[in-house]
Amino acid sequence: MCSTAKNKGNCVEYTDSGLPKIAIGFEVNGDRFEKHVDPTMTLLQLLHNELKLFGTKEGCGEGECGACSVILNGKAVNSCLVLAAEADDATILTVEGLGQGNELSILQQEFIKYDALQCGFCTPGMLMSARSLLDRQPNPSDEEIKEAIAGNFCRCTGYVPIIEAIRSAATREREALI
Amino acid sequence: MSEKILEHIGKGYDRKEAQEKVTGQAVYVHDMEVPGMLYAKVLLSPFAHAEIVSIDYSEAEKLKGVKAVVTGKEACQRVGLYMVDKNIMAGKKVRYQGEIVSAVVAESEAVAEEAVTLIKVEYKELPIVHNLDEALEAKVLVHENLHTYEHMKGVFFPKKDSNIASWNRTKKGDIKKGFEEADFIFEDEFSVPAVAHVPMETHVTIAQADPYSDKIKIWSSAQSPFAVRQLLAKSMGIAKGNVNVIVPYVGGGFGGKAGVHLEPLVSVLSKAVHGLPVKLKMTREEEFNILPTRAGMRARFKTGMTKEGKITAMEVYHDWDSGAYADYGVNVGKTAVYSGAGPYAVPNIELHSRTIYTNKVFSTAYRGFGHLETHWAVERHMDIMAQKLNIDPYELRMKNLLRPGDTTISGELIYPTTGDPVACLNAVKNELKWTGRKSQEDRKREMETGKVRGQGFAMLQKAPAMPSYTSTSAIMQMDEDGHVKVMLGAVDFGQGANTIMAQVAAEELRVPMKDVEVVWNVETDKHPYDWNTVASKYTFMGGNAVRKAARNMVQQMKEVAGQVLRCHTDELTHGDGYIYHVHQTHRRISYVKLSMGYAYENGNGIGGPLISHGVYMASGLSNPDPETGQGRPGLVWTFGAHGVDLEVDVETGEVNILKIVSAFDIGKVINKKLVDGQVYGGIVQGVGSALIEGYKFDGEAKLLNPYFGDNRIPSSKDIPDEVKAIYIEEPKTAQVDGPYGARGIGEHPMISVPSAIGNALYEALEINFHRLPLTPENVALAIDKHYNNDESK
Ligand code: FES
Ligand code: FES
Fold first, then answer.
1. Which chain B residue has the Cα nearest residue A153?
2. Residue B112 belongs to what domain range?
3. Which tens digit of pLDDT belongs to each residue from B398-445?
4. What structural domains and CATH numbers belong to chain A?
5. Torsion angle of alpha carbons B339, B344, B349, B354, nearest 10°?
6. Quick check: A115 and B677 CB within 8 A?
């Protein structure tokens, strides 16, 4: 129905390009999904508008701000730059999946402790970039931390508490492994 | 006296809502969907100044899924507060590139977006007012009838047949005499470009306008729900009670979400679709292009000095490039009347603050409310005068800083409890280890290494800019189990108001923090009134209101307990969840037993549910005199100083900030973690204004950089290597009428960061910068000009 001429069908979902939809299967935060998505739909739209995972934010839609960062197959990406169709077979982690059971993860706890958030709009993306850093480098230097979140704008905190929180989370996570 | 040691005030509690924010549970208007909701998109003017000859939207209307198209004909209401100069949508003409000329409501954003492209607008281009000079020439008028606009009379002064939205003045002493007394007269000119607020959540509004009545429901990413209610009701010509404004989590504001923005337009759009809810969300590009900015500004200073370095007179012009509209702009301009010469004793002054229309994106409140701009000028000017007088810049400031007994430029008397700028400067100087200017030889040696260090400092001050009769209120209610709910009218958009207010409530009630909850999601139908969440005034005003509410609740409990315990209320005290006799402490009743009224064993009840309220009304303020600007506009001043240690790369012009040290006479720190957050955030935002940010316009006054790509904000890589915050908490200079002595701090950290950096750059390079931003390109060009000319000598 949606594959007729542009905007002439009855389908008014999201991007609505009118092109044939693509069937994809993927996993988000441990849950399996099967969806038919518009080929122009972004991963951000899929997560936010379709799956209603509101934690992933849109700050620019142009790959410049990092508010939409999620971990796709182990790598932090700007979900506004990834097509939903590319997520076929992918494993995705969003901020909603960071906690363990009903417990906050160490990283989330340290964000609270160091007040690494004010308005909170950049926070989910910031957490995902930090998570991805700690996954590949459990003992990051301050320079590595700054580098890892350089693509995540925060207008509120001045980054100082965020860097402290990530540094402290790294230490605690390493200790937790011993 | 039962003076207790403070239990909650001064503790670094976690912010109350932190958990929701780290788990993705916090819902912002960006995320919200209301059943039956439609989407809107807007069409922007491509021209900076043009008549709208005709709009043909027949094609757009035909597009499937389109529900309504609205133009300035339908959305013709005026909107504004201080200077009512704007229609909801452009009417007969457009005044800036980016002004909204039409809007489409459709079933999806995509359809709305496509429909917008089908609207045909015929424009007749008009000559453009590009800048302040052209505006002052007044050959072309941005607003032909500005003298007829509704505005706050006696406070703002629009000039007929000009582009001046308001001309405000300060006149104190006799400048003629003052300049005669001077040994030297120094003149300087400085400027700053317009800068964007860049909240990470762009502006977004959902409106639902009941077609059968006047009722309008708004969900908005707004700082000031009660201001939205007031201005929306006024614009629509309906009673305030018909408007219910709901503000959930807000993704940053910085002044850009003060006042009213998209709300009236979206209300009209909802009306156009028979009251279905309509959502309008700005893209990042639209956020830059449509929504207001911090005004660009030019300051000209002429200062008389004795050879010892005492100011004898000042003549100042602050000219604000407010762009196409000036509703909030005029109020920003007004602050210069009482704060535009810095925290100095100036015996004779004439200061003109002119808010001026041009054909560019318009201006509004921005963190600092004009003070970053005025202080960029004042504090650079002070440094330049110190150079010329050959006096240490620290000494020159010390000679002129305000002290108790002095009066400000608007004639406000400084009390010991107004705060202590001297202590701030000393703290910064000591932490910076400033020992005076570096020698030519040292500089030369450093230049050869390619990197030069420099130190600089700058003073700052600010009091809330608000009407003299500004007020706020709080309501407090105890649950059956002794938990307390606090209702406020202010919005916590990250600055931490709710946590601070919970601390105040917990302190006064002497209950644990976990027993106090501040009710989130401010809703004007339910929450008590607050004027605006702006101006760094809420800790002071809200803190006082919450304190009074808590004290009233304690008093209510004592009155009931006094009857039960058979004693006068004076003999009772409270703590640990009990009202008890001061001496025979076993005579006590728990809060829980009093919460819904006390029940005797025989079943008799007395008292009732515990509900209290507290209000705070700004006290003793007056409007500035229209001619002289003399008056008392400053409810609570916060003074401060920044010191900067930086290194500049002589080749690339890149500035690396090694350390920023900042001292504020804050009176009392209520929550250090949250105050630190304001300071770090403010400083880095100040670094953005200093080194990176600024709007660029082309010859047609078209905004060239409405993208992060070319108009970005500081990232984690741009921050100073070290930030050191010093809080002065000296009881003698603390704010006696503030909660526990506290003053506001929200905006101050941003003010004068550029000035301190500019001054440090002089120290490094012996180059005086007059204009922001100090991008590598601008710095490198200046180095080239200065040293190549020098060497050729
Ligand atoms: S929303 Fe994806 S980078 Fe900004
Ligand atoms: S906390 Fe507001 S943008 Fe980072």
1. B715
2. 32-126+203-281
3. 999 999 999 999 999 999 999 999 999 999 999 999 999 999 999 999
4. 9-96 (3.10.20.30), 106-177 (1.10.150.120)
5. -20
6. yes
